[in-house]
Design a protein that fits this description.
By secondary structure, the chain is α+β, with helices and mostly antiparallel strands. The strands form two sheets. Strands 1, 2, 3, 4, 7 and 8 form a six-stranded antiparallel sheet that branches. Strand 3 and strand 4 form a beta hairpin. Helix 3 packs across helix 10 and helix 5 packs across helix 13.
């Protein structure tokens, strides 16, 4: 019995010794592991990139909000005109030629809606235009960007750059546009002239590089496409017949050529000098303005030839289209009709139809299959159709490859302005498809 107890004691002692050795080894390994963990050569720090916070607003939404904030703005306009000059540039034979332009405009307040791009907050401030000088409120540093053509002050589409505060972008403005009209009155048998002032407040989202984005470009492209689609639908519903091709509706004649009309506002609203310097930026600038302003874009813009609206109709041409396509029921008042995007797009489709009629009468229906048909129609739209007919005839008779240069303007061919117009068109025919593909993939 004693022997058994001794053996049992020996066994217990051995087991305890084994457990002690194992525990010691585990501790040693743990200590070794801890030492290795804090060894410099084993440290590996991984910093996860911050998760971007999704934007809660779009620039288009903010522009709409800004215009609502500005819609009831009242501003002060002075009485005495202040003279100033700007140097404008014209590209002649590849060289920029400067011209001094003189302006007179009274001192006026301009309201700016400023977006803080970091917070999404909009603040309305008032600046003063005194001749060529811009006077900003205390704490603000604002410059006006000069365009490649030399334009600085550009009315309600002036490009502002805010340096202080940072993260600030002008997304809308109210520009008071004054008109002084002399009114004749009879006073005691004598004619007395008095000046009557009318002020119209132009509410607009002015272009600036800070607003130049793929979102607004796409918005401009989509808006134009929607207007064209609606114009075709309304012309079809009204049963407006083509004067070019007997028995067909105008909408059916051009249904497969809607891209013709998407390019008109881009040709009409791009400066040729700026286009020659940077065509892509110049075209995108027009698309951004359309995207930012939608139905207001270029609505009241008129040039020195009294061509108005985003499609630049002249009074005589517009009146003729209204008259010969009565079923279209176009707006009869010229300025109202030219400013209305849908109405003017319908008028442009009808004008292309009328010009196609002339091309077919001169060259036969085979002109419909000519790959340069859009060029012929665009040149007729920009200039008198007779110049298009003369140049095309000269090219056919002379076997000249490029019809544009077949006849000089002195001999009745295309004018320089129209040739520049076609330079834009040829670029757009390539650019538009590429850009639309790029935008759709974003």
């Amino acid at each position: 019995m004693r022997i058994k107890k001794t053996k049992l004691l020996f066994i217990i002692t051995c087991v305890l010794a084994a457990i002690f050795i194992c525990v010691s080894q585990v501790k040693a390994q743990s200590i070794s592991s801890l030492i290795g963990l804090f060894s410099q050569k084993h440290i590996e720090v991984v910093i996860a990139p911050p998760t971007p916070t999704p934007a809660l607003w779009t620039i288009s939404q903010k522009i709409t909000e800004a215009k609502n904030l500005l819609k009831d703005t009242i501003l002060t306009v002075g009485n005495n005109p202040i003279a100033y000059t700007e140097i404008r540039y014209t590209s002649i034979n590849g060289k920029l030629t400067p011209t001094v332009k003189n302006f007179k405009e009274p001192e006026k307040q301009i309201a700016l809606a400023v977006l803080d791009t970091s917070s999404g907050q909009i603040q309305v401030i008032t600046i003063i235009k005194r001749g060529a000088e811009l006077i900003a409120p205390a704490g603000w540093n604002i410059n006006i960007l000069q365009r490649p053509s030399g334009i600085i002050w550009n009315g309600w589409n002036t490009a502002y750059k805010i340096n202080i505060p940072t993260h600030s972008v002008v997304i809308a403005n109210v520009y008071p546009n004054e008109t002084d009209t002399k009114i004749a009155k009879k006073v005691k048998g004598r004619t007395v002239y008095t000046t009557q002032r009318t002020i119209k407040y132009q509410l607009y989202a002015p272009y600036s590089p800070d607003l130049h984005s793929s979102d607004l470009i796409k918005s401009g492209v989509d808006y134009t496409s929607a207007i064209i689609t609606k114009a075709f639908d309304e012309l079809r519903q009204a049963g407006v017949k083509s004067r070019a091709i007997s028995g067909m509706l105008v909408a059916d004649v051009f249904a497969s050529r809607s891209e013709f009309f998407a390019r008109i506002p881009l040709m009409e609203q791009t400066d040729l000098t700026e286009f020659q310097i940077d065509p892509q930026n110049t075209v995108e600038r027009a698309q951004v303005i359309i995207g930012a302003n939608q139905g207001q874009a270029f609505g009241i813009t008129c040039n020195s030839s009294s061509a108005c609206g985003w499609l630049q109709f002249t009074p005589v041409t517009y009146a003729n289209i209204v008259k010969i396509y009565p079923l279209a029921k176009l707006i009869k008042d010229f300025k109202t009709g030219a400013a209305d995007h849908l109405n003017s797009m319908k008028a442009a489709i009808l004008l292309y139809d009328e010009n196609l009629k002339g091309l077919i009468s001169k060259n036969g229906k085979k002109i419909m299959a000519d790959p340069k048909l859009e060029e012929y129609l665009a040149s007729s739209y920009n200039g008198a159709p007779r110049h298009t007919y003369a140049s095309l005839t000269a090219a056919i008779l002379g076997g000249i490859q490029d019809w544009v240069d077949a006849l000089t303007s002195k001999k009745g061919g295309l004018k320089d302005e129209t040739k520049g117009y076609l330079v834009k068109l040829r670029y757009l025919q390539k650019y538009s498809s590429q850009t639309l593909a790029d935008i759709s993939g974003q």
